[in-house]
Amino acid sequence: SAAVGKRLAPGDIPAWLTVREGARLEVRDVRKSFGGLTVLDGLDLTVEPGSITGLIGPNGSGKTTLFNLIDGATKPDGGQILLDGRRIETADRWARSRAGLGRTHQITRLFPKLSVLRNVVAGSDGTWAAPAITGAQAARGVELLELVGLSDYRDLPAGELSYGQQKLVELIQILMLQPRLVLLDEPAGGINPTQIEQMGALIRELNRTGTTFLIVEHNMPFVLGICDTVHVLAGGRRIASGTPQEVRSDPLVLDAYLTGASQ
Ligand code: ADP
User: Fold this and answer.
1) Which of 82, 154, 206, 243 is most buried, judging by how many CB atoms fall within 10 Å of its CB?
2) pLDDT, tens digit, 9 for 90 and up, residues 73-83
3) Is residue 61 lining ligand 1, measured as CB closer than 6 Å?
4) What residue ranges carry the coiled-coil annotation (predicted)?
5) Does the predicted interface ipTM exceed a cut of 0.95?
6) What are the pLDDT digits (tens) for 56-102?
7) b/e per residue 154-185 (b: at least 16 CB within 10 A)
8) Protein residue closest via CA to atom 11 of ligand 1
9) Distance between CA 8 and CA 171 in Å, rounded?
10) Is the CA virtual torsion 136, 138, 140, 142 positive or negative?
């Protein structure tokens, strides 16, 4: 089908997308509670520039909450979040986006009635208000859609695409902003094997050009296969960090998952 497209190869990533260097993220002693529930209890972690870093942990361990704090959807109760050494935890979401932060969501947030291409350029003017498509933006958008075999669908309403296609479009939407750090919330969840492969190839090739990734993912073969570093959250803290191999054989990690699963 047209959706499969050609395989991504080094050099396929357009040069205009790779002009910015990958960013470094530091989370220092971050705290967040909802009512009486402490979700993040003094969380420290670092995402090295140019890495593909995974964030795993049982359901409810605070992974999505951390993403919300990093991208500015929510404010922390305490602690610091630094992008390349600059504190961003009180900056608004647009300032974070201009600083190079991009994020996809577990449930995609496309405008379902607007065309795929219009969605792709939606963030380009900093408003996310689906601006008119200009020639230059359209050309860039189509270029990126071609990478994942979706350029033939540019004029279709985004809501008519499959869930997996929408996830790929959401990633392309944030790539239009030339991000330096991309947060991916379950990029491989609920999508088919071909789309998982496309998602993985796109992440790998973007990372080869320097882009930093932080990935929350329940698909363990995917996340352990693609990440160079993994942080494990449990009980509002980081309980382990290391290479996928180190984390996989860590008894603390297995224990956290078993305990989490029984709650
Ligand atoms: P994960 O992504 O690791 O599954 P979450 O960050 O989604 O974990 O959730 C951590 C905990 O925080 C859960 O118990 C969840 O119910 C709670 N939580 C998250 N957001 C809110 C909110 N806005 N109001 C109240 N509780 C919340």
Assistant:
1) 206
2) 999 999 999 99
3) yes
4) none
5) yes
6) 999 999 999 999 999 999 999 999 999 999 999 999 988 998 899 99
7) beebbeebeebbbbbbbbbbbbbbebbbbbbb
8) 60
9) 15
10) negative
